[in-house]
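Re: the 142-residue chain
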Amino acid sequence: MVVTDAERRLLFCSPAEPASRADITHARKLGLVKFLADGPAVEILADGGSQRLGAQTDGRAVTPPHRKFKKNPPEWYEEMHERQCEAHSSRRIRVEHGIGHLKNWRSLARHHGRREHISDTIQAVAGLLSHQQAATANGTRM
């Protein structure tokens, strides 16, 4: 799970989990759901894997719209749903760019090591990227 700000800077990168897990379960385990529900009024632009997160955080997590009609939707609904998804996607593109900065590092783009060590690699790259972004923001060269 990765959190970025509006300027695409990396704010938080969680450790990798050893098994496949739903985004919302991971958010609960990290305490993100409780923090958003009880904490400051911030807006999180989440992906489709966090559909129920908005309801559990008093609307602070914004997800793409849920498809109400799975089969034979009315034509008006399909157009409306497409516009809503596109609007969410255009707001969320900055988040995706922030995540993309992590994936530009070869050690994450082509990880061939043991799965047990990927979490350490992610945290190391996140630390280096955060340092690089802070140095760039301050106008210093690395």
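The radius of gyration is 17 Å.
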